[in-house]
Amino acid sequence: xxxxxxxxxxxxxxxxxxxxxxxxxxxxxxxxxxxxxxxxxxxxxxxxxxxxxxxxxxxxxxxxxxxxxxxxxxxxxxxxxxxxxxxxxxxxxxxxxxxxxxxxxxxxxxxxxxxxxxxxxxxxxxxxxxxxxxxxxxxxxxxxxxxxxxxxxxxxxxxxxxxxxxxxxxxxxxxxxxxxxxxxxxxxxxxxxxxxxxxxxxxxxxxxxxxxxxxxxxxxxxxxxxxxxxxxxxxxxxxxxxxxxxxxxxxxxxxxxxxxxxxxxxxxxxxxxxxxxxxxxxxxxxxxxxxxxxxxxxxxxxxxxxxxxxxxxxxxxxxxxxxxxxxxxxxxxxxxxxxxxxxxxxxxxxxxxxxxxxxxxxxxxxxxxxxxxxxxxxxxxxxxxxxxxxxxxxxxxxxxxxxxxxxxxxxxxxxxxxxxxxxxxxxxxxxxxxxxxxxxxxxxxxxxxxxxxxxxxxxxxxxxxxxxxxxxxxxxxxxxxxxxxxxxxxxxxxxxxxxxxxxxxxxxxxxxxxxxxxxxxxxxxxxxxxxxxxxxxxxxxxxxxxxxxxxxxxxxxxxxxxxxxxxxxxxxxxxxxxx
Amino acid sequence: xxxxxxxxxxxxxxxxxxxxxxxxxxxxxxxxxxxxxxxxxxxxxxxxxxxxxxxxxxxxxxxxxxxxxxxxxxxxxxxxxxxxxxxxxxxxxxxxxxxxxxxxxxxxxxxxxxxxxxxxxxxxxxxxx
Lengths: 579, 129
What we know:
The complex is a heterodimer. Chain A is of the alpha/beta class. Chain A has 17 helices and 16 strands. Chain B has a five-stranded parallel β-sheet with strand order 2-1-3-4-5, sandwiched between helices. The interface of A and B includes residues 218 and 538 of A.
C-alpha cells in the first residue's frame, strides 16, 4: 500500500482519481492547489504525487520545485496530469524537477493505473530513472519561460478569437444592414402603393363627379325637346286637342318638370362635392322669401288638395342670404312635405327669431305626414340617403334633396335639422343669419387706428329705363352692374354692401376705408367702368354714382372694436336711410 | 312692319324643330345653320335680324362663332341670344361679355325666350329702321 497525494483544483477530477486509486488499495490524500499540496506532503510523506498543472494560488511546477527543495521529497515520483502543457519545454522542465510521468487529459482509467504502477515501481528502478536534478535557478528560469510561452500562446489565442469575433460581428452587421435595407424598401413600396391607391380613389371620385356633371348636361337637351313639343301640343300649335288629350299631355309635362328638377339636383350635388356651390348674398326679407316659395309651389300643393298655412308673427328683420338659394331650400322642403302628406291635409310654415340665438331667423316647415324614424332623423341629410318607411310613394326620388338643403343652409352659416319635439308628421327647421351691418364692416374697422378713421360711402343709384323688357332682364342688368362695381373695389379695404331695391330704383353701396380724396378716385373709376357697359345705354338704364365721407371724429383711443363698429354702423345707417 | 328674320345656329334637329314651331307661330322668318362653319356663311348670305346661338357646335365652339360674327361689319350690332345646356354659372357671364344679349339654359321656358326675342328686336329695330 502506498500513500498517493492527489492535487487538483477541481473536485470532480480529485474524486475520479481517488476512487480509481482507492480501489487498487492505495491510501489517498487530496489537496486543492499547490500550496495545500505542499503542506499535505509535509504531513503525509506521500509515495506518489499526482498533480494538475494549471491551478490557482500555486501551479503544479511551482509546487514540485518547492517540494524538491526538501530533501525528503527529492525523489518522490510526480505524475503531471494536464490537458494544457503538452509542449517539449514543459516536459523538459518536469524532467528537470525530478522523476515524473505525464498523463494527458482525458485519459483511460487503465492508462492511469499503468502509469501509477510504473511510477511506484521498485526503488532501484526509481533511483536509476531519476535524472540528476538541475540547479535551482535553471529550473526557475525554465518555469518562467514556460509560463511566458503559455501566456503568449493564450494571448495569440485570444487575439485570434477576438479577430474571429470581429469578423463574425462584421458579417452579422452586413446581414442586418441588408435585412434593414430590404425592410425599408418594402416600407417604401407599401407607401407608394397606398399613395397610388389614394390617388386612384381621388381620380375616381373626380371622374364620377365629372361624369355626373356631363350626364346631367347631356340629359337636358332631349328633355328640353320633349318638354317643348308637349308644350307646343298643349298650346294648340299642332292643331286642336280634346280634354282627355290635354289631361294626358299635362301629366307628361308635369313629369318632364320633375325630371328637370332631378337633373338640377344631380348637378348641384356634383357642384357641392367639388366645393363649387356659390351664393350671392343680399339683405332679404325672410317673409318675402317664404311667400315667394309658397306662390311658386301653390299648384303642386293644390293638386293634392293640401293647404299651406303661413305664420310669421310680427315683422322680421332682413336675413343675409342668396334669395334664389333659400327659395330652392324651401321648395325642396315643400316638395317633401307634399310627397309624404295625405291628400286634404295641411302644411304649416313658420318664421321667427331663433330664441337661443337672436342673430338668426328660424324657418320651419311642418306636415302631418308619416314623419321620420328616430334613427333616420340625422341621416336624412346625408347624400343619397332615403328613409325606409317611404309610404305608398312609388317615386322615391334621388335622395339628394335634403343633402342639397343642408349644404346650402350651411353655406349661409345656418343649420338645418329635423325637429322631433312635435308628435306626428315631420317638422324641418333651418336657421338663416340676420343681416347686420356691423358684422359686414367689422373687418375694415378692425385694422384702423384711433387717429386714422376715415371712411367713405359710395352710392350707385340705378334708375330703370322706359323699356326694361322683363323682370328677368332687369335682374340680369343689376347682376352686371354689381359685377362691375365689385371689380372696382379692394376686398381688404372696401366692403360691398348688399344691394337694395326701392320701388323702381336699385341701390348699390360700397363702404371704403379712405378719405374724400380716395373716394373721388373710386367714384371716377366706377363711373368709367359702368359707362362701358353697353346694354345699360341700350336698355336706357341710368346709373348715378356719388360718394361722401363719413363724418367720424377720431375714435376714443381706449374704445373697443365693438364700440368702433357701433360708431361706424350707426353713422352708415343714418346715411343709408337718407339716400 | 317687315317680318323679322331669325338665324338659329343649333346642331340638334329636334331642338331646331321645336323652336321653329314656336317662332313660326309668332310670325318670324327662320333660317338654320347646323354647324359653326356654315353659321358664318349663312349669316352673311341671309342677314338675319337676330341670331339664336347654341354653344356646343360641330366645327367650332359657339363662342368662336360669336367672335367671328362680331368681327364682321354687318354683324357688330345684330343681337345674339345664347341657348345652351351648359352651366350658366360659368358660361352666362362669358357669353354676355362676348356680346350676347341673353343667356338661356336648356331646357328653357319658351314664353321667356319669345319675350326676350320680342324685346331685343324692338330695341334693335328702332334705330335701324
